[in-house]
Amino acid sequence: MPISKTTAGGILLCRAEPLAVRPAAHMLRERLLLAPAGGWTALVPEGKPWLEGEESVAEVLSGWGSAVAMGTNWPVLSLWWQDGRTGFVLSSGFRRSAAYEWDAAGRPHGGPDSGTADAMRVLAARLGLDPVLDLEELERLTRPDEAADGPARLLGVIALLARAGLALPAGLAPGEPADRLREAARVAPGSESVEWSGWRDAMRAELAVVEDGPLGRLLRGPKLRLAGTDQLTAGAPLMLWAARRRDPGWLAAGTLLVAHGAGALAYDRARTRLRGRR
Questions:
Q1: pTM
Q2: In terms of residue numbers, what domain contains 180?
Q3: What share of the chain is helix, strand, coil (3-state, %, to 5)?
Q4: How many domains does the chain have?
Q5: How does residue 5 score in pLDDT terms, banded at 50, 70 and 90?
Q6: Are residues 9 and 127 in the same domain?
Q7: What pLDDT shows up at residue 114?
């Protein structure tokens, strides 16, 4: 059955644990639910921002995905469905995004050659899938199949990601209405709600990742200062550019970089001050 506009929705899948994803999710300034998904994190919007503005589900999630990918340094796959169409956008930091789209019948939207030519190859490479066997399965999703509609194509993508450890909580499936997705994410084991609560809490979350993360001991001193400076240098002009273009996705990405950079420098300064008092 074709997906109608009333069942528009989407899921963000980040190949990182919730601890690493939480600070970036905070910076989006949106109410989100984060659910552990087998070494990945599923992010489900609590609201429906695509109904409030001119942007489609794909555009909204693509912008969020780019911001989270930059904030975590892990790839983010945005799965979306709206107006009978389905698709995905893969964001990986400052790399060019890879996207693919199907119509309600499961055909490449606009014809066999309408999708990005190497989208499936990029998807396999950046998510660590097998470059031969898994890529062959992904390319099958671009070929005609009368038994596969749009949601079935996305289910095929999810099935392949299971080989990379993805384990979605029950109920988080393509084609489900946004309300149902939200309820499924809310009752998923280990899920949590993330909501913007001001810069102070956002910075605390950022510092917690630096302190508690597996690389916490390495990301200190000169390396941390260098990383923080680089992030500030890249993030400030990106914020200005996005503000001029009124692009919320890239504005969030620039904000994340600036926050990460400022947080890293503040953290290093605080540790240096504490050491000086001993």
A1: 0.74
A2: 5-193
A3: 50, 15, 35
A4: 2
A5: very low
A6: yes
A7: 46
